[in-house]
Amino acid sequence: MSQEVEVKPEDKTIRPTKKQKELLSYIEAFIAEHGYSPSYREIMAGTNHNSVATVALHVNSLIKRGHLRKRDRSARSLEVVRPTAPTPEVDVAPKQLKAAEEKWLIDKVELFFKEMEAAPALAEKELDKLYVLIGALKVLGLEGASQSFLPRLTDLKSRHQGNQYSV
Question: Can you give the pTM of this predicted structure?
Answer without folding.
Answer: 0.47
